[in-house]
Amino acid sequence: MTSVSSSPSLHTSHLASQSAEGFADVLVGLQYGDEGKAKIIDALAPRYDVIARFNGGANAGHTIDTPSGRIALKQLPSGVFHPHATLYIGSGCALNPWKLANEIERLREMGISLEGRLHISARAALVQPHHIAMDRRGSGTIGTTGNGIGPCYADRAMRVRNDTRVNLMLGDLLKNEADTITSMRDVLTRMINAEGGTSPWIAEMSDMLLGLPKVTQTLRGYIEPDRGWLTDRVKDGANVLFEGAQSVLLDVVDGSQPYVTSSHTVPAYAYVGGDLSPKYHRRTIGVAKAIMSRVGRGPFPSELGGERSAQYCHGASQSHVGAAEEQVRYSPDELLRSNDPFDVGTALRMLTGEYGTGTGRPRRIGMLDLAQLREVIKAHAVDCVYLNKVDCLTHYFHSAYQGVPMRVHPDVLSSEVMPDVMIYPGLNERSLTLGREGTLDAAMHGFVDFVERHIGAPLAGIGLGPERASLISLAEHDPAPAVSASPHV
Ligand code: IMP
Question: Which InterPro entries match (predicted)?
Answer without folding.
Answer: Adenylosuccinate_synth_dom1, Adenylosuccinate_synth_dom2, Adenylosuccinate_synth_dom3, Adenylosuccinate_synthetase, P-loop_NTPase
